[in-house]
């Protein structure tokens, strides 16, 4: 066949382009080094035209068939688990009460407690249960015991056992004169005296509620020192570092944490400005050498963006009452109202539900629940129906959401 034209070994076929389809490309690693996490994948709409892949707009691919952009993943099982203390005695000497126990995040290899954040992905057994201490002596048939049953009030009570003798909570819609002196004395004369002395050992663990103040965190000794700043909803806090004697090479740092920001630093702190973008802020410094620390000045101003709803409430300890729903004119029924609770860093929060009424049985659906969030660990607990509950925080911040 030399000299004759040779036929082509291939010829095109199916010249019509293929229908658009979704293409999945792995784009990231698992979000968790152990336990259940999420892996991000890139999802694009493509079409094959004459053997070539063409990128199309997503609207041209079937929406109902679009793969998830995040998928569950497990690299290995975590080496942490929840552990619990023994149950406490019944809270009442007679009638119905509750028992509680403390939960710990445990490293099973070393049998030592670790930060609860390592266990937050694992389901946890209950830490509160009901108990009965027998009938009360004064119980009368038909009336029930004093220690049992619901109190006929339409409110829940927030109690801090460590500060029961202090003043009622401040909603901060009150004038400054209504704020008890115990909550603000570190922002006034005592703070100025401490600054002259160059040491404020008593400032650690306190809550500042004034609109502006200088906080001297130097000279408090070695270890961690935390202070909290609180203002009404609708304001935001800015902090400037006036002085810093932190030893950065020794690992001394300062942490600023708010609902919408998280920032650490050591070098170039003086004259730097930190905007929390919210009405509460925690400042925590880790000092290894006695005498070191920072001096801060904070101010509050009207927030540039509304980050809350009209029915939301802000509470500052040591105790108070929460009532829901909040009656507002023209309030939409689908609004989820929240209550933000912030107390001094040295304190913890306890919430006890006294009375829950969801109306008729037809209204008691899975959409009716109360969600309580521990801000320090971001763990949440959900309480359904007419369930009475007792909840305790691991840190000094908590949030409550009332759904339906």
Task: Explain how this protein is built.
Keywords: Repeat, Secreted, Signal. This is ATS13 metalloproteinase. It is found in: Secreted. The protein folds into 4 domains: 21-76, no CATH class; 81-129, no CATH class; 207-302, Jelly Rolls, CATH 2.60.120.290; 313-403, Spermadhesin, CUB domain (Jelly Rolls). Helix content is 3%, strand content 38%. The protein contains 2 helices and 27 strands. The protein has helices spanning 181-184, 189-197, and strands at residues 21-30, 36-49, 52-56, 70-74, 81-84, 96-100, 103-107, 112-114, 128-132, 156-159, 207-208, 212-216, 223-230, 235-244, 253-258, 261-265, 273-275, 280-287, 294-302, 313-316, 320-322, 337-342, 350-352, 369-374, 379-384, 390-392, 397-403. The strands form 7 sheets. The chain has a 5-stranded mixed sheet, with no helix packed on it. Strand 24 (369-374) and strand 25 (379-384) form a beta hairpin. Residues 139-200 have low confidence and may be disordered.
Task: Summarize the helices and strands and which ones pair or pack.
Layout: E1 21-30, E2 36-49, E3 52-56, E4 70-74, E5 81-84, E6 96-100, E7 103-107, E8 112-114, E9 128-132, E10 156-159, H1 181-184, H2 189-197, E11 207-208, E12 212-216, E13 223-230, E14 235-244, E15 253-258, E16 261-265, E17 273-275, E18 280-287, E19 294-302, E20 313-316, E21 320-322, E22 337-342, E23 350-352, E24 369-374, E25 379-384, E26 390-392, E27 397-403
Parallel strand pairs: 11-13, 20-22
Antiparallel strand pairs: 1-2, 2-3, 2-4, 5-7, 6-9, 7-8, 10-21, 10-23, 12-19, 13-18, 14-17, 14-19, 15-16, 15-18, 22-27, 23-26, 24-25, 24-27
GO molecular function: metalloendopeptidase activity
Region (Disordered): 172-199
Organism: Ciccaba nigrolineata
């Amino acid at each position: 066949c030399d000299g004759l034209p040779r036929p082509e070994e291939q010829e095109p076929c199916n010249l019509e382009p293929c229908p658009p389809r979704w293409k999945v490309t792995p784009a990231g690693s698992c979000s968790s080094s152990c336990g259940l996490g999420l892996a991000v994948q890139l999802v694009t709409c493509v079409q094959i035209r004459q053997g070539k892949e063409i990128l199309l707009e997503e609207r041209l691919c079937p929406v109902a068939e679009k793969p998830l952009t995040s998928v569950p993943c497990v690299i290995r099982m975590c080496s942490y688990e929840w552990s619990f203390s023994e149950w406490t005695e019944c809270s009442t000497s007679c009638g119905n009460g509750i028992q509680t126990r403390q939960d710990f995040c445990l490293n099973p290899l070393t049998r030592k407690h670790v930060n609860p954040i390592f266990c937050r992905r694992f389901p946890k057994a209950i830490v509160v249960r009901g108990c009965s201490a027998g009938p009360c002596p004064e119980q009368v048939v038909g009336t029930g015991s004093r220690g049992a049953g619901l109190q006929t009030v339409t409110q829940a009570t927030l109690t801090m056992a460590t500060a029961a003798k202090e003043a009622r909570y401040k909603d901060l819609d009150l004038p400054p004169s209504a704020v008890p002196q115990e909550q603000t004395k570190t922002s006034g004369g005592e703070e100025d005296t401490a600054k002259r002395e160059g040491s404020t050992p008593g400032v650690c663990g306190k809550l500042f509620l004034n609109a502006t103040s200088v906080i001297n965190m130097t000279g408090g000794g070695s270890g961690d020192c935390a202070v909290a700043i609180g203002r009404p909803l609708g304001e935001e806090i800015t902090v400037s570092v006036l002085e810093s004697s932190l030893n950065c090479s020794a690992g001394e740092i300062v942490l600023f944490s708010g609902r919408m920001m998280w920032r650490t630093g050591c070098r170039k702190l003086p004259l730097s400005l930190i905007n929390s973008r919210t009405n509460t802020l925690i400042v925590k410094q880790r000092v290894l050498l006695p005498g070191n620390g920072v001096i801060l000045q904070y101010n509050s101003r009207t927030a540039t963006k509304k980050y809350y709803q009209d029915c939301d409430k802000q509470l500052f300890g040591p105790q108070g009452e929460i009532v829901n729903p909040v009656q507002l004119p023209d309030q939409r029924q689908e609004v989820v109202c929240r209550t933000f609770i912030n107390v001094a860093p040295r304190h913890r929060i306890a919430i006890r539900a006294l009375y829950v009424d969801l109306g008729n049985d037809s209204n008691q659906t899975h959409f009716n629940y109360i969600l309580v969030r521990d801000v320090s660990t971001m763990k949440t607990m959900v309480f359904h129906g007419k369930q009475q509950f007792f909840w305790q925080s691991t840190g000094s911040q908590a949030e409550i959401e009332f759904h339906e």
